[in-house]
Every structure is written in C-alpha cells, then in structure tokens.
User: Fold these one by one.
Assistant:
Number 1:
Amino acid sequence: MSVDDILVIGGGVVGLSIALELAECKLKVRVIDRGFVGQEASWAGAGMIPPGEIHFENESYRKMARLSSQMWPGLSERIYELSGIHNEYRPCGAIIVPRAGSSSSEFEKEQLCWNKQGIDTSLIESSDLPGYQLSESAGEGKSYLLAGQSQVRNPRHLNAMKYACLSLGVQITEHQQVHAIETEGEKIAAAITDIGRYSADRIVFAAGAWSKELGQLLNVTLPVEPIRGQIVLLNTPGQLKHIVEQGKRYLVPRSDGRLLIGATEEHVGFVRHNTAGAVRDLIQFATELVPSLDSASVEKCWVGFRPGSPDKLPILGQLVPWENAFVATGQYRAGLSLSPVTGRLMRQLLLDESPEISLCDFSPSRFTKPE
C-alpha cells in the first residue's frame, strides 16, 4: 500500500496544478489518472486565458479569473525552470466580434463590464477589420480589442506541468482507474484500483468530466456532466495576430501558423468522435470571418469533454461528510485558464489556511438536497 500526504485523483491541468502547489510545500503527493495525465479536456482546449470574467456575475468567480490571469506569467517561468519545456504562454490580445443578431446595447454592456473590472478595451470599426485580416462584414456593427487576453499552448503546458511535478518528487500513476473507495468512520482510508491500493492523509478528487462516478463511490452528489466540444485545426500561413471570439466560438492562432477553430457545446455524454456537421459549421464560421482561410489545409479534428456543473460554476471544497476528502472540478470552459488560482486556493484549503478568495459559492454542498 502506498501512503502519501496528499492523493490527487485526476491528472488533468487542475489535478497537476494542485499537485505542483503542494509539492512545492515539500509534501508527499501522488497523482492517479485513468489514462495518461493531461490528455483529456486540458489537452483538447484552445488555451485561451481571459484577463477577467464577464459571463458570470459571481464576484468570487471574477476574482478567481483576474488573479489566475495575473498568475500565468510567473507560473510559466516556474515550470520552465523545473521542466525545461516552454508552454508558449504569450499575451496576444483578442478581437471580440458581435454575434449575429445581437444588439449594440448588449455589446456595449459587455465592453463596460470589462472596463468596470479595470480591464481596457478599445473599439474597432467595421471598416478597420481588414487591417486585422478579418472580413469587414464580420459580425454586425463595431468590434473591440481586448488587449489583456493571453494564450498558452495547452499540450505543451500539460507536458511542462507533468515534468515539473516529477522534478519535485510527485509520484504520477497512470492508467489506473479508481473503482472503489475504502472508508473508516468519516474518513477515506484508501482508493482502490485494479492494480493498487492508495492511501493518503487527504484525498482530492479532480477528475473533470468523470467526477460524477467518483462521487457515487462516496455517496455524495457531484452533478458534473460531460459537455463535448469539437475543434478543427488548420495549417495556414500566420495571418491572424490576435485571438478572434464571436460568442462561444473562436479562432486561436498559434505562433507556428496553425489555427484552432472551436468549439461546439454538445450534451451527448462520452461520445468521442467528430461529426461532419459540426466540422462543416466550424470551418464555415472561420472562413466567413477570414475568407483567406478557404485555402488553408485541414490538419486534424478532435473532441474534448468539459466538466459542466448545473450552474456552470466550479465545485471546490471539502466533500462533506468525509473529513479528509476534497474536490476540485466543474470548471466548465475555464479549467485551463483557472488552473493556477485553483491550485493555489486548494493548496491553502488543504493546508488548513484561509483561502484568499472565498470558496463558499463553490461548495459541493450546494447540490445536496436537505433531508
């Protein structure tokens, strides 16, 4: 039996971020993953890092988004020193294009919401869009530049995180799925896989879209649903300098000329394949914004499963009634961008410190029906 200070079940970007924070505090940490670490939603996304949050009015969530954005440069330097791997973090800005049919007042309200958080935006007239390699007819009316937006190359970030954790002594156990939990009174005694039995003083469940099944092993409610997202990757001469967003769809240009087009939101369970209709729609979306992409080559397509809670807010905190069980899941579309602050806040919670941002609104107990 392995006995650790902390056992993290789930090796996505959230689980690895928690492990990194704790390992830097000289704790003995183990990460268990059902597959290869960092190969699910963390790997599949586009790596966008907004400077704040405007789509949810929850103030704690907005504080998390702002702080996490500020943490990314330092984290990127730290894991490069530990791993020798560049995650290609870079500020690149984003052009926000209005959705078809949206009113000018809605768009102005959105821009004002950024400004109230101290985040600068600047208007772009339709006639100026060709200067950004965009069609003048993109969207309807004015767009704006969100200069504080950044991006990271998430597959490389996950690789850097893995080796940074290993360099700090984190034990990473791959291809072991937890199928049972042993309990003693109100404590978890061990997590059981087909190969081993793993025990720790405290256990963190960070299994993303697979969290619901783990909750059932403990008879606790973790209502996390997999939300499939499809992405198309083009290989094209580097035309775009900025991320482009229109509603929930986006174009993300990489430094080597590749371009990500995303993403769908589909409630289809764990159905792991691309569909012709979704791929067609994504490519059509991209070529309407940037007509020159018609000649780009399609390199590949893939899917990922976002962990969505009923209110689309994270689930962070202790798993009552278990004294030594904690959870970090349900980040929906923001798992990667919020991973630095999530790691820090969970480290503070696990070490019995007061988290610098209140986690009350993210408690897993909010989904528990009163008896």
Note: The mean pLDDT is 94.
Number 2:
Amino acid sequence: MSLPIALQLFTLRDAVIEDMRGTLEKVKAMGYDGVEFANLRGNSPESVKQMCREIGLVPISAHVPYHKLILDPEAVFDEYAAVGCKYVAICYLKEEHRMGTEHEPVLIENLKSFGQMAKDRGMTLLYHNHSFEFRETNGKYDLDAMYDAVPAELLASEHDVCWIKASGVDPAEYIRRYAGRCPLVHLKDFSGDIVAERDGLGYPQRADNFEYACVGSGVLDIPSVLCAAKESGTEWLIVEQDRPTEGMTPEECAKQSVEYLRSIKY
C-alpha cells in the first residue's frame, strides 16, 4: 500500500493568499490526500479546518520558523491544533540560532519545551532540515547532534530529501537512520550538480546550476526514497517545490509531482 501524499502549500503561496478555499479545491483535484500549511493567511483555524473537512483534505501539519515560534509558542500550537494538524514543524533556523553558536543551549532547551507543548495537545514537534544542518563538528552533523540532545518523544524529524542530497548525503540511507522517528518526509527534487563545496563556516553550498524540479524529474532516486520511507515507518509524503520549473506554473509542477508519485509501485 502506498503512503498518502500531501502538498506543502508554500508551493502555491500566491494562490493561497488570493483564495485559500479555491486553492485547497485545486489541490484535492490534483490528487493530493492532505496539506501542510505555511501560514493561514488571515483565515481562522476553525474555517480552515472546515474547508479541509468539506473538500476532503487532511490538515496534517504546519511549518513555523523558529524565530516566530519563540515569540508565542503556546499560541502557535493552539492555532494549528484548532486546524486539526497532527504535526508542527520548525522549518528554519536563522544563523544566530543554529547549533554550534552561543544560542545552542537555548535552542536545545526550547526544543524540549516546545516538544512538550505539542505533546500536551496530542501533537508532535518536528524539525525540517535544509542543508546547513549538515555541517560537521567533531565528526557529527549538526542535525544529528540536535536529535541526540532532544529525546525522540519530544522531537521527530521531517527529512527534506532535496537538501539531504544537496549536502552530499544519501537520502534513503539517512531516512533509515531515523526509522521510527521520521513520520513525514519532504519530497523535493532538483537538477544540477550535487553540492560538494562548503563555506568558511563549514556549511554546504549549493551549486551555481542548482534548480528546483518537479518530483521525479531531477537528480534524486525517488523510488529508493519511497522504499526507505515506507520501511522506516513514515506516515506521510509531503511534496514541496520552492520555485516552479522554468516554463511551468506552480500548479503544473504540483500536479506533475503527484501524478509521478502515483505512478510508482513500492
């Protein structure tokens, strides 16, 4: 049995701003089972929950940057709990908040606190990676150090396979490393060279010819990722494309990605 597929609505962010309900209807018509939010765009949690219920989409999760979450974490979890989301994912850390900085002890304690807030509401806190978390310190990636420092019951992973691959790491192997702790996997593809260079701080840098691609049309071995996800207890696959492929609209990209995923047996 294949895993259910959701769309990260950041992919269609302009359309969401103009018409949340109409966009959700289009997402359902494309063949998606659920959605992951980036922002409710002024809609009340109750109205968004009702839209999803009427349209037939599962409001599975939401992305919230760390610098916004720390302002009022209780309000964030309450808002997305009211939508019906099972997960809230920290989607970005500013450089001053990352592992290996003076803020690291605060970050770790905040993650534990946020994880408990989520757990108290029947939700799970996730961390969504980019490539900078694959800086190595004393032989260990910053991302691994973070997961080692916070109990699994308070912080799970939402591996983004694009950024894992762009950091020179095998996405399928990395998903298996976190079997049982990776309920959501972000499917994002790209074309261009695999990144090997690192900047002066040790952060991986993407190649000059890097370009976002529809899932299945880039450099990633998507079938191997899907097999690893299924074997590792992943519950949902989340499609995201930050920018559309040249010559295509965001809607066309989202549709092509889900159609490709529906065509694979794993």
Note: The CA atoms of residues 99 and 145 lie 8 Å apart.
Number 3:
Amino acid sequence: MSWITGVGLTPFGRLDGRTTLDLMSDAASAASAALADAGLRRDEVDGLITGYSTTLPHLMLSTVFAEHFGLVPCYAHAIQLGGATGFATVMLAHELVAAGVLRHVLVVAGENRLTGQSRDAAIQTLAQVGHPRYEVPLGPTIPAYYALVASRYLHETGTAAADLAELAVLMRRHAALHPGAQFCEAIGVADVLASKPIAAPLRILDCCPVSDGGAAVVVSRDRTGGTGVRIIGCGQAHTHQHVSTAPSLTSFGTAAAAARAGLGTRVALADIRYAVVYDSFTITLAILLEELGLAPRGGAGALAREGHFSREGAMPLNTHGGLLSYGHCGVGGAMAHLVEVQLQMTGRAGSRQVRDASMALLHGDGGVLSSHVTLLLEQAR
C-alpha cells in the first residue's frame, strides 16, 4: 500500500525561457509544489524517479535533477516508456514504498517540448518509435501510425469521424474550467471535422498539442493530512513495439494491464466512480475507454455526446481537459492526469469538482498502444 501525499502542476502551453529542469523544479513549478503540498522538506525525500526529456536527453536525468534540485536520495531512477512513462514512474514508486524500501518518493517530469525544440525535431524524435528498418525510413509520423489504427477502428465499428470528434469537444469543455489549460476556447464537432487534416482520418483537433509544462507527485509509505489518496493496484501489459509487428490493430493490452492491477477482482468495474485515461489522440481515448469496459465497442463517442463522461455525468473523465486540451509536455502530460485525480479525491478541484471520486481508474499507453499501465486509486477518509 502507498499514498499520494502531494502533487504539483504547472500551467501547460508556451512557457518561454523555461528549461526542462526549470519546469521540473522551480519554486513555482512541479517538484517544489508537490513537496509543499505533502508538507515535506527536501532532506525527507529518500527516493527520486523521473521520466525522460526529448529536449534534455541526458543519460542520467534523475541524478542531474537531484543535483539541480538539492536532493541526495538513497534511490534514483529514470524511466523511458513513451506515453506510459508517467503512470509507470508512479507504479515503480508504489512498489518501492509498499515493499518498505523507501518512505517518500518524489516522482517528477517536465519538458519545454514546445519552445525547446523545432517542430521538425519534435516530429523526427517521436517518429523513432517506429521500426528502424521497416517503418522509419518510409517517413511515417506518430499521427500516421495512429491514423492506421483509427481507420481500422472506424471500418470495423461502423462509426464515423464525428464520433471521435465528440471526445475532443468534451476535453475542450473540461479544459475551459482549468486556468492552467493550454486551450480553453469552446469547439464543436463541426470545428473538429473542419480542422486541418493531419493523417486521414485524423485532423489537428483529433491530436494533442505540443506543450511546455511539468508535473510531480509524492508517493509515501504513510498517509498525511485529512482525506487520503491510496494506491491499491497497479498493472502493466506490453504486447508489441512496432505497428508492423503488432498482433492486432483492433485489440491491445489495455484489459490485461487493468486485470493485473486488480480491476474485476480487487475492484469491480461497477465500483469505479472517476476515470482518467490517456488521450494523445481521440482514437487513443476511444479505444482505451472501450477496452477498459467504460464504453461498449464503438460506443465511446456516443457516450461522450450523451454526457456520460462529463463532470456531472455517470463517469467523469479527464476533468482537467486531458492531453487534448490541457496539453502534452511529454511525461508530465500523463502525470497531469494523476494530479487531477488527487485534487478530485481531496476535494480541491474547485469548479471542476465532481460528486464522487472515491474510486478512480487511471490508464496510460506508450508507443502506438503498445505499452499499457493501469492504476487504481481509492479515497480514504
């Protein structure tokens, strides 16, 4: 068992003059805010886990950050698992704390991905998830890989691009209530369908933006403060790395990771009251929701249209706006989802507060739906 005792989150978007280390550590930024929230001094942190940064690709990012931030941890580790990294870092922190190895682990990620590199450099870097011989030389981008998945999904389910667009509209509606979101202007399905084509059938509003930003959480052995947020289950699944070797473009490792976290055994799906699900593209969100059992096959867009995933709905989803509208700064993008869960569970989400966040399901994916991490969180009063 472990507890999330503190969180910190920067605004996402264009944050000029801020480096990766700034976003991870400055007084107004992620790590400092998380420690202050947990009521901890830096010398009380005995573990440090970081993600990776494409703008600071140092081989030893965790110890670089420790030196920069003034930590002398007993344990330091950096993880690279694509979009699944944010939840994978927290899972590792949970395992170390639950095993009695560490008492307080600072998990932090940040990156100036928007202002710290050119658009072409970002596209080239992210495209390296492709197979170096059979995919990368052909020039596909990350959106192109996901467009293959989206095309197959629309064909097999008989749904339309407008159904995927409903998810982008929902995320923008939620982001409008968060002062740190990169995009808050209201959009409709027609706006999504009329936006710039990127890789058919995906358009620019089906895709998350590139952002600067940072996020941090503290995972502790003991509970602090009033309402507690407890990690009660974690699971992973890794079915493939490359699209050209994927066993399927319609079935992925989502359900396996969730089962290993205890969904269906330790926690029934009917007990879940709040969800945060990785949404790098609208197709990502649709497939993950459906494979988790939160929507029927082909039905995620329809449920979004009906209000099922709204703040007032039966299953509130990504109430900060998700990657699609709050923004995506790399590893910190998924961790922003986790920060929102902790704020919801401790009653600190302000105008975004939902009626009941007592049991939450979190899921992230890395690569092209290739690596999956599920977390189950419980509110304890």
Note: The longest helix spans residues 142-157.
Number 4:
Amino acid sequence: MNVIEINNLTKTYGKARGITNISFNVEEGEIFGFIGPNGAGKSTTIRTLLSLIYPTSGSASIFGKDCIQFAPEIKREIGYLPSEVFYYDNMKVKDLLKYSASFYKKDCSKRIKELAEIMDLDLNKKIDDLSLGNKKKVGIVQGLLHEPKLIILDEPTSGLDPLMQQKFFELLEEENKKGATILFSSHILSEVQRLCNRVAIIKEGKIVTVEKISTLKENNYKKFKIETKSPLNQNYFQMSGVNNLAVDGSITSFLFRGDINAIMKKIADIEIANLWIEEPDLEEIFLHYYEKEA
C-alpha cells in the first residue's frame, strides 16, 4: 500500500519557480529520500502535500485520502519537522511540548521524556535561551511525541552536531522498525544514502528520477584503482565503458560501467601489485544525473 501518492502536483508563484508535474509514491513502512539542491522545490512539495499551501493543479493523497479534503484528519497521524522552526520565545520547552501534545487525544508525557533523553534536550529551559541546534531538537521531539504513522522531515539535520545526527538517525530507524513510514528530504547525499530504500531526485522543480538506492549504485560506474608492478601503457585500458582514465606512475585509475567480466580479463593479463574496486558514492551518481539532464 502507498502511504503517500503524489500525482502531477504543480504549484506556480507567478514568474517565480515552484514545482511542475511532481509525481511519486511512498510505500508503507519505507524510508523514502527526497533529494535535490537548495531551492529545487523540496519544501514546496512538502508544504503542498501537507495542504499548508494549495496546488495550482494536480493532487496528492496520504493514507488513501485526499490531502486537502481530509487535511485535519490526516494531520493527526503525521509528524512534521519543517526546515526552520519558530517558537514562542517565552515558553519553557516542556510547556511547549505539553501544548503540542494537547492536540492529540493521548497522553504523550512518557514519550516526551524518552525523546528528550535520547536527544539530550533540557525540558526546563526557555525557548529563547536555546541554540539553533537545540531548537531543532525541540522540533524533532515535537514531530515524534505522538508516535505518528507517517514522519515528514524537511532538512532535519541542519543545526545538529555529528553526534546528535547519529542519535537522530538511530531514532528514526527505531521508529521505522515500529512501523512508521518516513519521507526524508535533504540536500546531503550521505544522509539519504544511509537511511533510505528509494529516492526521488528533484531539480529545478521537476523530478529527474525515482530509483532504488541499490539500483542507482548498480547502474552506475565502479571506481577502479590498480597498482601494477611496472607502469602501464596509457592506452591499455582504452575500451568502451572506461571513463576518467588516469595513469600516474604505477597507479592507474578509472571509472567503469559495463560488463565487469570484460574489465577483469584485461586486469588478469597484467602483473598487479594491488587492486581497489569501489562503489561511487551518491554524490558522484547525483552529479551524473544532473549532467545528463543538463
């Protein structure tokens, strides 16, 4: 079953770019990555999905219900973290979270304590005394305190230090194991690579591709680095599928895409001292998609 279905969603702001014909689905129980550079249209898509703004055309549904028609009902089961959080400065953290919890017809006090402990958040501090990172933690606790079925995160790690990011990812993995579906929007590829099963890449308001992370990696280049006993002829690896070939003394490196057996036969015919074969990271794959588009 799809928890989120987005069909040809378009939002235009006069001449300013919004989003055009965005379509993708998020399946129940998956962690879905939504990735693109800043200004690509990620937040606009999410705000439209949450009916915080209305689409110019197209439609979206969550839990099989239309996002606009059933907005209040849907929101009870969603945890949302916007990319920037703004609060009443004069409130204490615990009062703000208590106030948030009052919208959901259940007792969230135990959960608030648990989350504050995991995220190392002082509940007795006033909001205006908090650093940017700690305000972000308040947003995370606020988004998760009612144990939502769907968690929508817009650039959730900005402002968190690396240790906190690690804890936050573990927390999300826990929620996902318990059955929560997660839409994770980010411009940081390593985050998406670590957490997500599938990813939609957005560029300039349009979807470039929707792929499994594993497929993105498989269909792409492998990185080869070969150390030989004696320097190789520059042309030895000139064959189809080889790119970015560089020979530096006894080390030859290149990117390869194609039948791996063909390249292994070439390698078998030379005396090698060492060999490294690596997956390119999403960063390189991502650039490849952007170049292809351009």
Note: The chain has two domains: 2-217, 221-293.
